[in-house]
Write the structure tokens for this entry.
Amino acid sequence: MNKWNARREIFSSMPIRSFLTFCLSVAFTFAAVGAVNDLFDLEHSDARRLIVKVLTSAVFAVVWIMILHRRMTRRLFVTSAAILAVAQTSWLIVSPRIFPPLQHTFTAEQWRTHVDLHGLLIMGLILFSYGWFGTFFQMEGKRYFAAHTEIELATQIQQRLVPPIQMKTGNVEAYGVSIPSGTVGGDLIDVVEADGFVCAYVADVAGHGVAAGVLMSMVKTAVRMHFMAKPPGGQGLLEAVNNTLTPLTETSAYATFAYLLVSPEAQVTYSVAAHSPIFHLRRSSGTVVRHSVENFPVAMFANAQFQTATADFQQGDILAIVTDGLTEVFDSREKELGETYIETALTRLATHPLPEIANGIFKSARRFGKIADDQTLLLVRRSEA
């Protein structure tokens, strides 16, 4: 987002009370400009022309602010700006005919009196402008610190919910890292051990901030509660998470989800809920296959059913779950990085420690283009016991 779009975004998200206060400040500022303009044309002006100049300067300034800083489509913006420019130009042409210039001849004393009165008016308008700008900054300052506090809270929530993962249990090892694109991200990684099974999953929560952090905590709690109930082989994980979250969230609050349920045998059960595919490096052949299942995101539809699948998971095999922040990376020419490089990295670094494999994937993404979304990677390998 460039500076212009960022500025428009600030004003678009501003409460209406703050925006009206800002407009009032601008109105008084440009009313003073109108008074100055009249001061330079005293011999052709009178009280009525002064009032008209003050009011029109203020009104046109406020309308320009509304067009320049409120959210609208590009086409509507161009049309509105063109109409206002034509209107302002037309007014400058027509106003002398509506208010014909006068011809005054002032004495030195009268001239001084008019200058003094205009000076007092200008000072008064500037003082009002200053006062309203002060009110505006005070209101937005409170909003900024409230937002800052919220962001800090969300950051703390995320740090506790999504710490780096590095663990080994039996012949299964896992390593996971999530790098937020901003102060607060919306990705969740976790590994749970239950009854000889290892469940490793990644969830990509819609949105950012405290709301996303709360949903992340609900997802993590729902997963762990499900395994505390000790279902046979971890069956029904996505149904349990979905049924827990759906009654508690809005339809706009949902998460894509991908998980692996690694059994003591050489097999893995997996499912993908509207998430990127799972990459599977088969050590025996040195090839990478992609596993996916067609499902809705979790927390979107009540009582939804989710499909699962199984695959062989032999010694030396590596499974990788990523979020789209690692694949939807664009370079300066808007070329997308894609998914192939992940397969290449898994093949090239197959025998390396999992942290080195992860580091290689993240480095490739960083070299290719700017981080635009949260980047999350979870690796699981079956090694020797």
